[in-house]
Amino acid sequence: MAKMTIRDVELGGKKVLMRVDFNVPLGDEGNITDDTRIRAALPTIRYAVEHGARLVLMSHLGRPKGKVIPEMSLAPAAARLSELLSRPVRQLSDCVGPEVEAAVGEMKDGDVVLLENLRFHPEEEENDAAFSKKLAALGEVYVNDAFGTAHRAHASTQGVTRHVAPAVSGFLLEKEIRFFTTVLEDPDHPFIAVMGGAKVSDKIGAIENLLEGIDCLLIGGGMSYTFLKAGGGAIGNSMVEEDKLDTARRITDLAREKNVELVLPEDHLVADDFSETANRRVVKGDIPEGWMALDIGPETTAGFVDKLKKAKMVVWNGPMGVFEMEPFAAGTNAVAEALAESDATTIIGGGDSVAAVEQAGLSDRMSHISTGGGAALEFLEGKELSGLAALSDK
């Protein structure tokens, strides 16, 4: 990696301002229902603490749109981090201002504080220069370990780097970049991309860029029905993006031109309603009117699994069906199980794919589970991530 990392800087006695991604899901009682993102930042946090840093953590949570919304406080994240670290983590009542500056000024080596939700201030997403400078005043070293927001040019990801040097990556960001760079620049073959989820539109750029390096593209989920309709198939009441039919045809032509095998579902688990209790059946080929496909069918599933068994590298983004409903989870689960049993390098990106792998209890058997859906897709598109570009070069 061409950017400096936390290993490259002296931390002892320094105020270290670290951007983490503690945008965790909260239950009705304000409890954290999934602490994966907090756990993902632990190696960098522990490293900083063990090396005597005075660690100032900052994150956003939810979309408060520049207003203070108590239900979106980071207090639960501070409490959970304190448990995981087995040391106190002080939650501050704001992220800028005299009280925050005073609290940070009182810190001793090894202390950890968590600033309040950055997005309680509209200036965070506006990348406001004055706000960036106030945040920067809290640190002598800046660390970005929030891959999930690395594609955003916000005050905490880009603006601060104009006022704090060095600006370096944490271990999580470094790991994400390493895996995705390998995907684009030095993949093992056979290399398969599995794309699913609802919309083609979210993944056009990533698919087009991946076609330069992959050997096979497996398409499932709602987006596959846009491709099937574009190819002249009948899809009944299945999900379709009518304005992306030409795009689907273009991608199909591009795959043929690049000699990439593009595989679409041949059979489908269809239902007469979007419901767990709907009538359902398997149909091959055209889908009749009044029925919608909610999962890939058993023949398609077997075919996908067979191809995945031969792969040396797999990138998976998007489920094969409505896996949240148990009757329509078989295709997604089969892909997850095939990857878990594979010797290939397996990289899972996108919130729903990650959720599916975790729901199946298979996340620890994947090579890499990405913490950033949008950032992962932008990286796969070949775009420069603004938060990464802002870091100091080695």
Describe this structure in words.
The protein has 394 residues and is an alpha/beta fold. The chain has two domains: 6-174, Phosphoglycerate kinase, N-terminal domain (Rossmann fold), CATH 3.40.50.1260; 187-381, Phosphoglycerate kinase, N-terminal domain (Rossmann fold). Helix content is 34%, strand content 15%. The protein has helices spanning 36-50, 75-85, 98-105, 122-126, 129-136, 171-185, 204-210, 223-230, 245-257, 298-309, 330-340, 351-359, 373-381, 386-389; strands spanning 15-19, 54-58, 90-91, 112-114, 141-144, 167-169, 191-195, 216-219, 261-263, 267-271, 280-284, 292-296, 313-317, 345-348, 368-369. It has a six-stranded parallel sheet. A six-stranded parallel sheet has the order 9-8-7-13-14-15, sandwiched between helices. It has a three-stranded antiparallel sheet with strand order 11-10-12. Helix 1 (36-50) crosses helix 2 and helix 8 crosses helix 9. The longest helix has 15 residues, at 36-50. It starts with 14 loop residues before the first strand and ends in a 5-residue tail after the last helix. The model has no long low-confidence stretch (mean pLDDT 95).
